[in-house]
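dude i think i finally got it to work??
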Amino acid sequence: MKFILLQFAIILLGCAIATRAAEEKNYKFILDEVFAEKESEDVGKIKVELVKSEEGVVINGQAEQLVDLDNEWKVKIAFKSAEDGNREYNSLMALPPMGVCDFMKFYYRMYIYESLVKYSNAPSPYVCPVVKDNYIVKDYPLISDKFKKFLRPGYHQIEASLYNGDEEKMKYIIEGHVVEETEN
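look at this
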C-alpha cells in the first residue's frame, strides 16, 4: 500500500500542477527526487529506484507491507509548488484524510490501477483490507502523455502520509519540475 500511495502521489503531482494553458505548449514533467521523510519498520519497507533516460523516467521498486491496511489507516496528501529552483514551496491544496479502503476504491482505481497493474503485482482496488504482501513494480513509466497538455512550468512537491489513528507512520516527499519541451 505504501508503494501505491507513493505512485498515487506522483500521479497526483501531475494532476495537481495541471492547468490548461491559453497557448498549446508542449510541457514535460521531470521527476527530481523521491524520498522518505518518515518510515516505520513495523508497517513496511520500501525501496524505490528512479531510472532516468532520454525517453523519460521509469520506476522500479519493492514494498514489503507488514500489516493489513483498512479504513482505520488514513492517507493524507498535500500539494505544493514553487516558481523557481529555490524550492520555497507554497501550499496549493491538501486532500482531507481518507481511509485506505476508500482511497483504493476511488483515487487508486480511477488514476493508478489500470496502468500500474501492467508493471506490477499491484493489489486490486476492490479488495479490502489491502493485505500484507511483497509488492514489486518494474519499469513503470512516470507520467502518461495524456497529462502533458495540462502541465504548467515550475517546481512541484507532494507530501504523502500514512496514519494509524493520530500517529503518522510514514511520509514520502516527491519533487519534480515542469519545463517546456523544445523540438530538435
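The domain at 2-180 is CATH 2.70.220 (Ganglioside M2 Activator Protein; Chain: A,).
im so relieved honestly
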